[in-house]
Amino acid sequence: MRIVPCRAVGAEVKDIDLRDLSAEDERVLQESFADYGLLFFRDQALSELDHVKVSQIWGSININRFFKPHSDYAEIALVEKEPEQTVAIGEGWHTDHSYDVEPALGSMLVAKELPQTGGDTCFVSMYSAFDRLSEGLKRTLLGLEAVHSAKHVFGSAAQFVKNTASTNRIGQADLADDLLDSVHPMVIRHPLSGRPALYVNPGFTLRINGWNEAESRSLLDFLYEHAVQAEFVETFKWTPGSIAFWDNRATWHSAQNDYQGQRRIMHRTTINGSALEAFDLASARVR
Ligand code: SIN
């Protein structure tokens, strides 16, 4: 197995067959996932059961409440876009499940049917986003929390629901409407690496806790623009057999919706995580 770092974030794991992993392979993969926060694999031939089993190396699988499940494997959520659909699941920068009290550890996306062109997925690092801030702003953020919600994305009022209802939704808008919003530190101590990571995202973060709308919007918009500067974006071009496995506490991702009229079918597992702790001010080593 070879781990080849990518230009901006993540690493590609080469010379590996995910169907046939030794205990040592699993250990190296876990270590690499903690180090890089994003792993890519190519030319894999995973069955649905293999996909579930590989995901379980990192923990239990979250049964998605909002996406259509695979007919035989409830652990696999279908990330589908049909030719007539205009909106894609996952377009726009976000990290999965930040609206949960215990946000997901990671998501493993397996390519099943790809468009002829387009449909890449872009990634950025939330470690780098934090590291690149000034010392003053870092210190300010270390004391803050933000509110995250699923309602505006999966709830009854969401545009997303209206545009994609026919093929990739399971009509759980009521469930999203009833979900309590979650509050998380804006800078977390990453559960695997111990490093500080910025933990807000354009998809699900509503506001900074205790700040008014205008104050919140200004700072969040600044952070969002800061995080996705072109040189920090890793673009993954999918090919048959490709897999991307991202840490939802260390990265954001965004599906490129640039293949109108074509089909794109992906299988996603999402691995349960734990409650997030604030990066400790006392032990913070900010430059
Ligand atoms: C997602 O956001 O989970 C889907 C990303 C993609 O389809 O590329």
Write up what this structure looks like.
By secondary structure, the chain is of the alpha+beta class. The protein has one domain: 4-Layer Sandwich (Double-stranded beta-helix). The protein is built from eight helices and 15 strands. It has a seven-stranded mixed beta sheet. Strands 12-6-14 form a three-stranded antiparallel beta sheet. The protein has a three-stranded antiparallel beta sheet with strand order 8-7-11. The longest helix is centred in the last third of the chain and has 15 residues. It is globular and about 50 Å long. Succinic acid binds next to strand 5, strand 14 and strand 15.
Write the layout of secondary structure elements.
Blueprint: E1 2-5, E2 11-14, H1 23-36, E3 38-41, H2 48-55, E4 77-81, E5 106-113, E6 121-125, H3 126-131, H4 135-142, E7 145-148, H5 151-154, H6 159-168, H7 173-178, E8 182-185, E9 187-189, E10 196-198, E11 205-208, H8 213-227, E12 234-236, E13 243-247, E14 251-255, E15 264-271
Parallel strand pairs: 2-3
Antiparallel strand pairs: 1-2, 3-13, 4-15, 5-13, 5-15, 6-12, 6-14, 7-8, 7-11, 9-10
The chain binds succinic acid.
Unreliable sequence segments: 164-168
Helix content: 10-25%
What overall geometry do the principal axes of the alpha carbons give?
Answer: globular
Distinct small molecules bound, one entry per kind: succinic acid
- Taken as a percent bin, the fraction of beta residues is 15-25%
What distance lies between the first and last C-alpha atoms, to the nearest angstrom?
Answer: 35 Å
Provide the structure class: alpha+beta
Which architecture name does CATH use? 4-Layer Sandwich
Overall domain count: 1
Number of strands: 15
The number of helical runs is 8
Major beta sheet summary: 7 strands, mixed
CATH superfamily: Clavaminate synthase-like
The CATH class designation is Alpha Beta
Give the topology string: H per helix, E per strand.
EEHEHEEEHHEHHHEEEEHEEEE
Reading side by side through the largest sheet, how are the strands ordered?
Answer: 1-2-3-13-5-15-4
Rg from Cα? 18 Å
Q: Mean of residue pLDDT?
A: 93
CATH T-level topology: Double-stranded beta-helix
